[in-house]
Design brief:
Layout: E1 7-18, E2 21-32, E3 36-40, H1 47-54, E4 62-69, E5 72-73, E6 83-86, H2 98-105, H3 117-123, H4 139-151, E7 157-161, H5 169-182, E8 187-191, H6 195-198, E9 203-206
Parallel strand pairs: 3-8, 3-9, 6-7, 7-8
Antiparallel strand pairs: 1-2, 1-4, 4-5
Helix pairs in contact: 4-5
Length: 211
């Protein structure tokens, strides 16, 4: 199972700026499986940007990131296979029904062993809406879909940006159950100021330390 693989992500002198404004400077840290890390900081401080840089979705302005899977270097163009990502602004194919979207997603990503698409739909509690286009879903329902496509994908790394956005208390409880059940052996990094989202993280990184 790939989620049981050992991943090491090393950040060396990572900085990011937009135009002349530095978002963060000289981040030096290492993320190791199966660690649980929270990136903390005020709204607009750069938490989400740092998470996207770690995911390989944005390039740093300066510095170097390296990725090692089971002590072997991972090419950046292969990162997609090893990282799952969830963010409130993340785009999903809303023209698809839930069933169609999950079939599409898991056609190029591996599902966690022991799960299948009907089980996932039941787990997230959306059986009644599985044949409706996702564009008709509420914001909370859409967020559960985004979480499901990340958490239930068999990857050693899980990156979560404010994962409980738009969730009601039942949705937050679901999130906790999924984290506890499916993420114990994974490297998880959460960008958030909400303790409900990063309650399980034992390591904390303040973005304000890199201003």
């Amino acid at each position: 199972m790939s989620a049981g693989s050992t991943m090491k992500i090393s950040l060396k002198h990572i900085s990011k700026r937009f135009q002349k404004h530095w978002i963060f400077k000289d981040v030096n840290t290492v993320f190791l499986s199966s660690g649980k890390y929270a990136i903390l900081g005020p709204n607009g401080s750069g938490k989400s940007t740092l998470l996207r840089v770690i995911a390989g979705m944005q390039s740093p302005s300066t510095g170097e990131l390296t990725y090692e899977l089971n002590d072997e270097q991972v090419d950046k163009d292969k990162l997609f296979n090893h990282i799952s990502f969830c963010a409130p602004a993340q785009e999903i194919v809303e023209e698809f029904t839930l069933t169609e979207f999950l079939k599409f997603h898991f056609s190029f990503k591996k599902i966690i062993a022991g799960l299948d698409i009907p089980h996932i739909i039941e787990t997230i509690g959306l059986q009644h809406a599985q044949d409706k286009p996702i564009e008709e879903y509420s914001s909370g329902m859409k967020q559960r879909v985004k979480l499901a496509q990340a958490i239930f994908t068999d990857t050693p790394v899980l990156l979560l940006d404010e994962p409980c956005t738009n969730l009601d208390e039942h949705g937050v409880q679901q999130y906790r159950e999924w984290i506890d059940k499916y993420c114990s052996n994974r490297l998880v990094i959460v960008a958030s100021n909400d303790v409900r989202e990063h309650y399980f993280c034992t390591e904390r990184i303040s973005i304000d330390d890199y201003k």
